[in-house]
Amino acid sequence: QEHFVESGGALVHAGQSLRLSCVHSGSTFSRYSQAWYRQAPGKQRELIAAVISNTATDYDASVKGRFTIIRDDGHNTLYLLMNDLKPEDTGVYYCNSLSQMYNWGQGTQVTVSS
């Protein structure tokens, strides 16, 4: 079954940056809008960034202006560039299509200390 493998999470200090990567295993990646999701401790998973094309993106208000979502269809890869990280960005980050059509991966842990 097609799925994603996320990587790049780490423990960082507030104000620092990270780049998350997400590689898709199948052949349908380029056909669909893709997205990054975040699950903060004790909370439900939420949509934080979506990309139709690299010129058509959308962001949750909590990350707008700090995060950038990029898709590389040639490598079936989705990126999330995260700048000026805040403690409230702490959580497990996942990728999936915007319609959540794929199985969820393991996610990658991001922890931001104050």
The biggest sheet, with number of strands, parallel, antiparallel or mixed sense and barrel status, is:
6 strands, mixed
Strand content: over 45%
Class based on secondary structure composition and strand pairing: mainly beta
Mean pLDDT: 96
Could you name the ranges where pLDDT drops below 50 across 5 or more consecutive residues?
none
- Number of beta-strand segments: 10
What distinguishing features does this structure have?
114 residues, mainly beta, 10 strands
Task: Draw up the topology in text.
Blueprint: E1 4-7, E2 11-13, E3 18-24, E4 34-39, E5 45-53, E6 56-59, E7 67-72, E8 77-82, E9 91-97, E10 108-113
Polypeptide structure, described:
- Helix content is 0%, strand content 51%.
- The termini are far apart.
- It is mainly β.
- The protein has a six-stranded mixed β-sheet, with no helix packed on it. It has a four-stranded antiparallel β-sheet with strand order 1-3-8-7, with no helix packed on it.
- It has strands at residues 4-7, 11-13, 18-24, 34-39, 45-53, 56-59, 67-72, 77-82, 91-97, 108-113.
- It contains no helices and ten strands.
- The chain is globular and about 40 Å long.
